[in-house]
Amino acid sequence: MITASNWTDYEILDTSCGEKLERWGSYLLIRPDPQVVWQTDKKDPGWRRCNAHYHRSSRGGGEWEFFDLPQQWTIGYQGGGLDLTFHLKPFSFKHTGLFPEQAANWDWFSEKIRNRIRQGVEVKVLNLFAYTGGATVAAAQAGAVVTHVDASKGMVGWAKENAEASGIGHSSVRWLVDDCRKFVEREIRRGNHYDAIIMDPPSYGRGPKGEIWKMEDCIHELLKLTTQLLSKRPLFFLLNSYTTGLSPAVLTYLLSVTLVPIFGGTVSAEEIGLPVRDSDLILPCGAAGRWEL
Q: How many CA atoms lie within 13 A of 45 on its CB side?
C-alpha cells in the first residue's frame, strides 16, 4: 500500500462504526467512510468534542451538523520537498475540498518532475478532473507548467485560491473549465503534447450538457485518447480510482495494455491509504496506478 505519512496538519485519529475521526489543522471532524466496517471502542475523546459531524442519510446523501467550525480555514503540507497551503470548507457530500491520501502521489511525481528539470528540460503536465488543484499546485511548485482542467467553474476557482496561497505564479498554470474528454479531443486536433498526465476521474458524473460519465464504462476509451497527448519522451502517467471494483490489479491491466505497447516503461498500482493514529493501522482510501518510463 502507498501511504501518505508526511502530514503534520492532518491525521486520522480513530475509526469505528462506519466513521472516521480526523484532525484538519486545529479542527476535529467526524465523517462517514464506507471502508470502516468494524465496531471498535471509541476511546479517543475527540469523538465527543468534534467541531463538525457529517451524518449520512439512509435515503442517500446527508448533512453536516456544526458545533464550532469556521466557514473556511487553511492547512499546510510540508513533505516531499513541497510547501503547500490549502483552503478548506465543508460542502456537499461530506467533502472538505482535499483528499489527504493524495499527498503520497504528490511526493512521488514531484521528485520525478524535479529530476527531469535538473536535466534542463521543461516539463508540461496535464491534470484532468483536477478538482481543487492538490496535484496541480504540487506539480507547479516542483517546477512543471500545468494545464488544469475541470468541468466545475467553482472547483477551478477554488484551485486558483490554493495555487495563490501556495505561492504559485500565474504563468505556471493554465486554468480551464471544460469537459475533460472534449478537451482531450481538441488538444489532439491541435497537435499539443504533454510530458505527464494526471487523471482523477469520478466514479459517476455528468458533463456540462448532461453527458453521463461512468468510470468503468468510459475510462479505457479516455485512456487511449490521452496517450495521443503524450510527448515522445513522457515522464509519467498517474491514474487514481475511488471506484469500487477498479482494484489495483485492474488499474495495472488498464495502464499496461494502453501505455506499455506504445512507450514501454513500467506499471505499478497499489491501494493508497492514511495511517490511523490510535490503532497504528492504515485506512485504505482508493487506489493509484502509476506508469513511468
A: 0
Q: How far is CA 89 from the centre of its chain?
A: 16
pLDDT digits (tens, 9 = 90+) for 220-269: 999 999 999 999 999 999 999 998 888 999 999 999 999 999 999 999 99
> Confidence band (pLDDT; 50, 70, 90) for 207?
low
